[in-house]
Amino acid sequence: MSEPYSEHPYSSIFLASLTSVIAQWTAPSFLVAITAREGIDLDSTSITAISILDRQGPMRPSVLADNLGTGASNVSKILGRLETAELIERRKDDADARAWLVHLTPAGAEVAAAFIRAGDGMLRELLDGWSEKERHLLTQLMQRLDASTRAFAATLDTDSARSSTPTESTVSS
Q1: Cα–Cα distances in Å, from 128 out to 4, 21, 135, 142?
Q2: Owning domain of residue 57
Q3: Burial of 164 (0-12, 13-18, 19+ CB in 10 A)
Q4: 151 in a domain, yes or no?
Q5: End-to-end CA distance of the chain
Q6: Do the domain assignments include residue 148?
Q7: pLDDT digit string, tens, across residues 12-42
Q8: Which of 6, 17, 82, 92 is the most exposed place for a label (fewest CB within 10 A)?
Q9: 172 pLDDT exceeds 80?
Q10: Residue 112: is its pLDDT beyond 70?
Q11: For the chain, how many structural domains are there in total?
Q12: Burial category of 104 from C-beta neighbours within 10 Å (exposed 0-12, middle 13-18, buried 19 and up)
């Protein structure tokens, strides 16, 4: 087996491989190409926004902006495009009449379901030729890694990390 990561900066080939998979799967062009297989024509940020709304349910635009790692102005443009495409709608927040919640429309929910079909199809292709035992082992190990990652994430102070600004030492390193 060739070693595509022979000059990676990580302490293990596993981490280099995992980083490579994450980078590929989250690359905007990759997201757009995978969803296009299901006939979906959206930009990567819209794909991510719909996925977040599908998984987490209705939310305020500011919460969606935080989830997307963007600001209010950009999320407003994204929501405008999705609203024009009739994939989302804004509804008054029953808990706060001054606020709005972003909801997927039935068409938006169908698009989200198409994303899942696209991901399922991609995984079938990626694992083509793998034995049932290999697939099962990968699933077990990924579930274990997911649980460990969630437990580790719960120990992190994400609020202070989000509010911190880069310092000279972090920028230059």
Answers
A1: 21, 17, 10, 18
A2: 22-128
A3: exposed
A4: no
A5: 34
A6: no
A7: 999 999 999 999 999 999 999 999 999 999 9
A8: 6
A9: no
A10: yes
A11: 1
A12: buried
- Joined together, the tokens standing for residue 170 give 């972090």
Whichever domain contains 39, its CATH number is 1.10.10.10
Q: Are 62 and 102 in contact, with CB atoms under 8 Å apart?
A: no
83-101 burial code (b ≥16 CB/10 A, e <16): eeeebbbeeeeeeeeeebb
pLDDT score, position 169: 45
pLDDT band at residue 6, thresholds of 50, 70 and 90? low
Render pLDDT for 56-89 as a digit per residue (tens, 0 to 9): 999 999 999 999 999 999 999 999 999 999 999 9
| pTM listed for this prediction | 0.80
Query: Cβ distance 98 to 141 under 8 Å?
Result: no
Write the DSSP string, the chain.
---TTTT-SSS-HHHHHHHHHHHHHHSHHHHHHHHHTTT----HHHHHHHHHHHHH-SB-HHHHHHHHT--HHHHHHHHHHHHHTTSEEEEEETTEEEEEEEEE-HHHHHHHHHHHHHHHHHHHHHTTT--HHHHHHHHHHHHHHHHHHHHHHHHS-HHHHHH----HHHHH-
